[in-house]
């Protein structure tokens, strides 16, 4: 029954399309018949018409399932968008267009696939020459996997291919893999291992059908043939030295580890160098020494036994002080409790060079233990560092074969160099604007490397400790941070110093511009214009009189400018500029000069006479009023009585 319905539907669809086409109303759908979409992508189907101004559209699936998509129609087009594409979108979609009573319909099949990632190559372990290893090629999240084919290549050699033609029972993303076990050889190093996956979907050329991953092979060799060489011998005298060298073959080249077996069977780590040197041997140095070659895939060991024979007290090496480059030092080699010392010989070596030897041949009457010594003064240099100082004592007693005849002590020289070439790097500058960030880095040469001490010089000359780091950082500087900073480089050989001055500047502030007696004066008055900037040192004060024809710089003294007799032309705008290396500020005021009435001097002769007369009249009137009041109080007025009352 469904088959018949499809046939009927198809026939009616063809007749309707032919009828509509004859009327000029046409329809297209993009893509035309099939759309191949990858799961997770966004895909749009477009239905467009011609021959109709205002068509309407309807989207549906052939089986009337949900669309699982969004629809947007504009003008003569309608788009069905699946974002993201999922298994639910693997359907046949129908677009129906209406133009009045006319109707057109076209269908499109949406097929989905998943092939989102390149293959992954995994090894069961590191590739060791001669040992089997399994390589796995994984292709993740594939659909439909029955169209998948995987190939594995090693260089030009095809190792294996596999396809997955079994029927897909359910819609799901599957991870498929191919495995190959092979035995690596050294010649495989550098070859490319290629895992290539192909999804056979030939209908749509634009879909990526092939993905591959490449890994370069690195084949390793586990350590072997580990060999120890000993110089001078595995049987040594106390105080002697021995050098043991170990080698081991492998790829990559094995790292060498030296250790010593303890009594409990554990290993005591000693060194990671190929050569192990033991000096000033003692009896407790006897034992089994183990060399082990180790690389990424394995290890191999070899052992050697050292035996240190007993020997009484070794010579003692003493120095008059630390070794400082260029400074004389005295080395004393003492051999304690010697008898008979008339057969004693002491030799002092620096490296392969003999510095001094001494024989004690004088005859002694008594039998006693004596301490004998040899002293040498020399000037050490940096080239002496690392050399071995050897004090060797020989007692020439041939008949005493059972006694050791030679003893020695060694000491490796380390020559110190007093600090020098102390330098200070200031970033960005030693002259800064307040609030800036500044770092001061101190460095110097010397052996051992000098310890850096930062301090600040106080006003009384004392030093205020600040830091023991090479770099001194001030985050946000203020004027109080200005001053002398001192960097000392110190080691056991001496001290060296470097000073740097830090200057913190601020832009002018608190600028004051004043006029005395006021900003409004009369012609002929004395006027003082003063500018100050109290909080910033090293500030330049510039007074100007503004004018359209140009500013006039005034000759001020300490920021003050005096106008002896103000004239009308002295009126105007006066400006003060306060500036330093950081910035500047401006302030201005307006001076008003008023002219005299009738252009007459304030102290004319007539005015002076009037002033003098008024100065006499006013006191006289005051006296008359005073005596009149006295008279009123008594009922009469008498000048004589008035004078009496004062007495």
Give an overview of the whole structure.
By secondary structure, the protein is mainly beta. A hairpin with a 6-residue loop joins strand 43 (540-545) and strand 44 (552-553). The chain is flat. It starts with a helix and ends with a helix.
Protein structure class: mainly beta
Query: Can you summarize the main beta sheet?
Result: 5 strands, mixed
- Average pLDDT works out at 82
CATH class of the largest domain, named Mainly Beta
**Domains, number:** 7
Assign the CATH architecture of the largest domain: Sandwich
CATH homologous superfamily classification of the largest domain: Immunoglobulins
Give the neighbour order of strands across the main sheet: 18-24-23-20-21
Total helices: the number is: 3
DSSP, total strands: 47
Which blocks of ≥5 consecutive residues have pLDDT under 50? Answer: 1-22, 398-403, 599-613, 624-647
Q: How widely separated are the two ends? A: 155 Å
Global Rg: 54 Å
- Overall 3D shape: flat
Helix content: under 10%
Strand content: over 45%
Give me the oligomer status.
single chain
CATH topology of the largest domain: Immunoglobulin-like
């Amino acid at each position: 029954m469904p088959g018949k319905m499809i046939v009927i539907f198809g026939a009616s669809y063809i007749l309707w399309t032919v009828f509509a086409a004859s009327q000029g109303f046409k329809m297209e759908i993009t893509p035309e018949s099939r759309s191949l979409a990858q799961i997770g992508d966004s895909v749009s189907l477009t239905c467009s018409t011609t021959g109709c101004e205002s068509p309407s559209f309807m989207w549906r699936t052939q089986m009337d399932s949900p669309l699982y998509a969004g629809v947007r129609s504009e003008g003569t087009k309608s788009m069905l968008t699946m974002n993201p594409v999922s298994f639910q979108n693997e359907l046949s979609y129908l677009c129906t267009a209406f133009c009045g009573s006319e109707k057109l319909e076209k269908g499109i099949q949406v097929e989905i696939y998943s092939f989102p990632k390149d293959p992954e190559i995994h090894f069961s372990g590191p590739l060791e020459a001669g040992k089997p290893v399994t390589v796995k090629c994984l292709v993740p999240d594939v659909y439909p996997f029955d169209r998948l084919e995987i190939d594995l290549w090693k260089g030009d050699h095809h190792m294996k291919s596999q396809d997955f033609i079994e029927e897909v029972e359910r819609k799901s993303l599957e991870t498929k893999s191919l495995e190959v076990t092979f035995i690596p050889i050294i010649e495989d190093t550098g070859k490319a291992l290629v895992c290539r996956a192909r999804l056979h979907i030939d209908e749509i050329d634009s879909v990526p059908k092939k993905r591959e991953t490449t890994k370069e092979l690195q084949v390793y060799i586990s350590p072997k043939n580990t060999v120890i060489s000993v110089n001078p011998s595995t049987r040594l005298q106390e105080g002697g030295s021995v050098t043991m060298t170990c080698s081991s073959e492998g790829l990559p080249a094995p790292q060498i580890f030296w250790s010593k077996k303890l009594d409990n069977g554990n290993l005591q780590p000693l060194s990671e160098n190929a050569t192990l040197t033991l000096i000033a041997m003692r009896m407790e140095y006897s034992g089994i020494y183990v060399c082990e070659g180790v690389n990424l895939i394995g290890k191999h060991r070899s052992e050697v036994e050292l035996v240190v024979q007993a020997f009484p007290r070794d010579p003692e090496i003493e120095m008059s002080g630390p070794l400082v480059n260029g400074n004389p030092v005295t080395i004393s080699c003492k051999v304690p409790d010697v008898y008979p010392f008339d057969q004693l010989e002491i030799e002092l070596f620096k490296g392969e060079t003999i510095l001094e030897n001494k024989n004690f041949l004088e005859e002694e009457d008594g039998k006693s233990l004596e301490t004998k010594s040899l002293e040498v003064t020399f000037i050490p240099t940096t080239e002496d560092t690392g050399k071995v100082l050897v004090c060797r004592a020989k007692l020439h007693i041939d008949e005493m074969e059972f006694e050791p005849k030679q003893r020695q002590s060694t000491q490796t020289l380390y020559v110190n160099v007093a600090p020098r070439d102390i330098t200070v790097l200031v970033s960005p500058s030693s002259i800064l604007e307040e609030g800036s960030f500044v770092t001061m880095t101190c460095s110097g040469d010397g052996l051992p490397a000098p310890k850096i001490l930062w301090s600040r010089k106080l006003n009384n000359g004392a030093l205020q400790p600040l830091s023991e780091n090479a770099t001194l950082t001030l985050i946000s500087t203020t004027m109080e941070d200005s001053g002398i900073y001192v960097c000392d480089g110190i080691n056991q050989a001496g001290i060296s110093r470097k000073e740097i001055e830090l200057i913190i500047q601020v832009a002018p502030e608190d600028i004051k511009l004043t006029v005395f007696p006021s900003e409004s004066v009369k012609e002929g008055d004395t006027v003082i214009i003063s500018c100050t900037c109290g909080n910033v040192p090293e500030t330049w004060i510039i007074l100007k009189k503004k004018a359209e024809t140009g500013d006039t710089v005034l000759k001020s003294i300490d920021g003050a400018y005096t106008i002896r007799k103000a004239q009308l032309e002295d009126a105007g705008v006066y400006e003060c500029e306060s500036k330093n290396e950081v910035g500047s500020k401006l302030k201005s005021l307006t001076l008003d000069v008023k002219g005299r009435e009738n252009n007459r001097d304030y102290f004319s002769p007539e005015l002076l006479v009037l002033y003098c007369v008024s100065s006499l009249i006013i006191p006289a009137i005051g006296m008359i009023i005073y005596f009149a009041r006295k008279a009123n109080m008594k009922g009469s007025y008498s000048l004589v009585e008035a004078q009496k009352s004062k007495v």
